[in-house]
């Protein structure tokens, strides 16, 4: 037998490393993304990431849609905390249009945004647990994510891709059940979060798995464009809520937790601490909302007739309301020309919207600054030389959301 | 001293003279442009200068203006000075035929994928980029989809034979023509999963 029957790629016999495809549909990737790992035994020599599996061309689609129709697109960026994306988009539009929202709207938005942040951190941290072999925490906290989703449901009617709020405020006022559920969350969640921390924070096995896994220095993190909890875990106290307050965040009293080494353990701790801070903010916002009395307690949107749909009752009975309704729904309103960049503190970093308007009915160009698209580049640097099992934890502790990465 | 938009503008004009132009402040954010050959010089100056210290690249993206002859494509940088919390927007323009701009990856590691994305969408060729290939779209794609010459599909078109999405005819789903009548008719004769 002189003929070679199995054709091997050139150089594959001499090769001493192993190529491993982690993803695109591996359960540990938590989303559709591929990592081509080059392994020497169990050590990682190099990594190449492939993304774009669920690219849906949102930036192109947005160029043909009136502003209010872009909100559902933003839902699908970071779908673990879509209300923050929705609010970020509304705030961008409001900045472009020069809309000033009433304080009560700001506080209600803050409540919703912080609930979303908690639900996102909750998922991320419990997934880090799952990937290091601790399933209990994940199952246990799911109940409270469910409660958060029930609150969304009371406010806007949907749960995951929320499409919550409108330009100028909310589509309807919060009902009593929503407030009761927020109160219930505030009462019960601290105990649960404490218990969740007890399961992990000083757990020897968890500490051994996460301490020193995927560390990054503050300098490198900044160079890689890290934002959010991942940057704060490296020791930089950059938080958009404090640096460029939006939606009246300046009225609240809270702290920015920071880490030191930027490894998985620090990222975990920073997220946990942020949940406590979010609880503090919700508590304050909730009290502030209760203080509004009389007519003020009924305010749930700004007066923006060009973009905020009139009440249905008026549409059927009043001419002007009917005209506005028609114009808004058909997207027949020209927006002011200009360029605007607005960013909010998303659950995994600075979520920015860069909109160029030429004065038409749709944005001329809309670009989303998606935090995890930017910091996922550092994955190779974070995992080089570490074990394969660390690569999994690093990925889950970075809080990568495929929908946001691929837009 | 605290940085102000005016001070940054003054520093830039001192350094680059007439080359930096188009100073604006839309919504309070200092915006300016420079010739594309100077983009690295400007970025380096903003990065290194002891007072300016714009060392965080927030965002990098492209914009297409097909009606601007010779300056069709813009590359927009959003920079942030985290110490003093100042932001600015910096643009360079290039033509779409030979769209070449120097890469900023030497300065910011974060520029790597953002430039790949800009290349993917607009075909801006970042000279010196270590790995300039498509990132979100498939490698086989032979056009740059976010350019304005590729309009989105007209949603009211009726000529498209697209059975999967039920847009086969003007009447509605199920009326598409197949080999033996319409889909609706064919389904009537279909035994489905029944074993015959």
Describe the structure in your own words.
The complex is a heterodimer of chains A (407) and B (196). Helix content of chain A is 49%, strand content 11%. Chain A has 407 residues and is mainly alpha-helical. In chain A, the strands form 2 sheets. In chain A, strands 1-2-3 form a 3-stranded antiparallel beta sheet. In chain A, a hairpin with a 2-residue loop joins strand 2 (34-40) and strand 3. Chain A starts with 17 loop residues before the first strand and ends with a helix. With 196 residues, chain B is of the alpha/beta class. Helix content of chain B is 21%, strand content 24%. In chain B, strands 1-2-5-4-3 form a 5-stranded mixed beta sheet. The longest helix of chain B has 12 residues, at 5-16. Chain B is elongated, with a radius of gyration of 25 Å. At the A-B interface, helix 1, helix 8, strand 4, strand 5 and strand 6 of A face strand 3 and helix 3 of B.
How is the topology of this model organized?
The complex is a heterodimer of chains A (407) and B (196).
Chain A: E1 18-22, E2 34-40, E3 43-50, H1 58-62, H2 67-75, H3 82-97, H4 103-131, H5 136-156, H6 176-200, H7 204-210, H8 218-223, H9 228-233, H10 240-243, H11 264-291, H12 312-317, H13 319-329, E4 338-346, E5 349-357, E6 365-369, H14 371-375, H15 379-383, H16 388-397, H17 402-406
Antiparallel strand pairs in A: 1-2, 2-3, 4-5, 5-6
Helix pairs in contact in A: 2-3, 3-4, 4-5, 4-11, 4-16, 5-6, 6-11
Chain B: H1 5-16, E1 21-24, E2 30-35, H2 39-48, E3 56-64, E4 73-81, E5 86-94, E6 100-102, H3 111-122, E7 125-127, E8 177-178, E9 181-182, H4 183-189
Parallel strand pairs in B: 2-5, 6-7
Antiparallel strand pairs in B: 1-2, 3-4, 4-5, 8-9
């Amino acid at each position: 037998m002189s003929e070679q029957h199995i054709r091997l790629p050139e150089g594959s016999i001499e090769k001493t490393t192993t190529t491993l495809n982690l993803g695109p549909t591996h359960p540990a990737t938590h989303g559709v993304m591929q990592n081509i790992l080059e392994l020497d035994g169990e050590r990682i020599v190099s990594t190449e990431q492939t993304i774009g599996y669920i690219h849906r061309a949102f930036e192109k689609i947005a160029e043909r849609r009136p502003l209010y129709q872009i909100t559902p697109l933003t839902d699908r960026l970071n779908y673990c905390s879509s209300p923050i994306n929705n609010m970020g988009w509304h705030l961008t539009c409001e900045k472009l249009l020069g809309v000033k929202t009433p304080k009560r709207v700001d506080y209600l938005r803050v409540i919703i945004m912080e609930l979303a942040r908690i639900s996102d951190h909750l998922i991320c941290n419990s997934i880090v647990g799952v990937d290091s072999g601790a399933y209990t925490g994940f199952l246990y906290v799911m109940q409270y994510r469910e409660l958060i989703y029930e609150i969304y449901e009371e406010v806007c009617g949907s749960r995951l891709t929320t499409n919550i709020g409108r330009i100028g405020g909310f589509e309807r006022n919060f009902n009593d059940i929503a407030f009761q559920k927020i109160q219930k969350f505030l009462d019960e969640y601290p105990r649960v979060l404490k218990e969740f921390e007890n399961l992990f924070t000083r757990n020897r096995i968890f500490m051994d798995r996460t301490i020193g896994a995927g560390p990054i220095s503050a300098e490198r993190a900044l160079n890689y464009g890290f934002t959010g909890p991942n940057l704060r875990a490296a020791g930089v106290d950059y938080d958009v809520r404090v640096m460029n307050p939006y939606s009246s965040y300046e009225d609240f009293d809270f702290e920015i937790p920071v880490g030191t080494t930027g490894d998985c353990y620090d990222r975990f701790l920073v997220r946990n601490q942020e949940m406590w801070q979010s609880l503090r903010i919700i508590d304050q916002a909730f009290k502030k909302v209760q203080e509004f009395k009389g007519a003020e307690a009924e305010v749930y949107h700004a007066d923006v007739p060009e973009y905020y749909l009139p009440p249905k009752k008026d549409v059927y009975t009043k001419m002007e309301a009917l005209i506005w309704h028609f114009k808004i729904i058909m997207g027949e309103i020209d927006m002011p020309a200009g360029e605007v960049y607005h960013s909010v503190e998303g659950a995994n970093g600075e979520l920015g919207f860069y909109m160029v308007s030429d004065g038409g009915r749709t944005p001329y160009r809309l670009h989303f600054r998606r935090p995890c698209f930017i910091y996922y580049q550092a994955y190779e640097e974070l995992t080089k030389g570490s074990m394969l099992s660390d690569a999994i934890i690093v990925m889950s502790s970075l809080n990568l959301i495929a929908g946001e990465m691929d837009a | 001293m605290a940085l102000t938009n005016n001070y940054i503008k003054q520093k830039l004009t001192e350094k680059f003279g007439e080359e930096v132009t188009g100073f604006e402040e839309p919504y309070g954010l200092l915006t300016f442009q420079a010739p594309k050959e100077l983009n690295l010089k400007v970025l380096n100056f903003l990065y290194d200068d002891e007072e300016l210290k714009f060392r965080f690249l927030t965002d990098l993206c492209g914009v297409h203006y097909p009606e601007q002859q010779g300056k069709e494509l813009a590359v927009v940088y959003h920079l942030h000075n985290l110490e003093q919390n100042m932001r600015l927007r910096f643009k360079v323009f290039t033509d779409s035929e030979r769209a070449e701009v120097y890469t900023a990856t030497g300065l910011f590691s974060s520029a790597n994928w953002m430039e790949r994305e800009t290349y993917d969408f607009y075909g801006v060729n970042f000279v010196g980029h270590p790995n300039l290939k498509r990132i979100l779209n498939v490698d086989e794609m032979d056009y740059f989809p976010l350019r304005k010459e590729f309009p989105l599909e007209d949603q009211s078109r009726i000529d498209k034979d697209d059975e999967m999405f039920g847009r086969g005819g003007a009447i509605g789903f199920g009326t598409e023509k197949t080999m033996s009548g319409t889909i609706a008719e064919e389904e009537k004769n279909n035994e489905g999963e029944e074993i015959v």
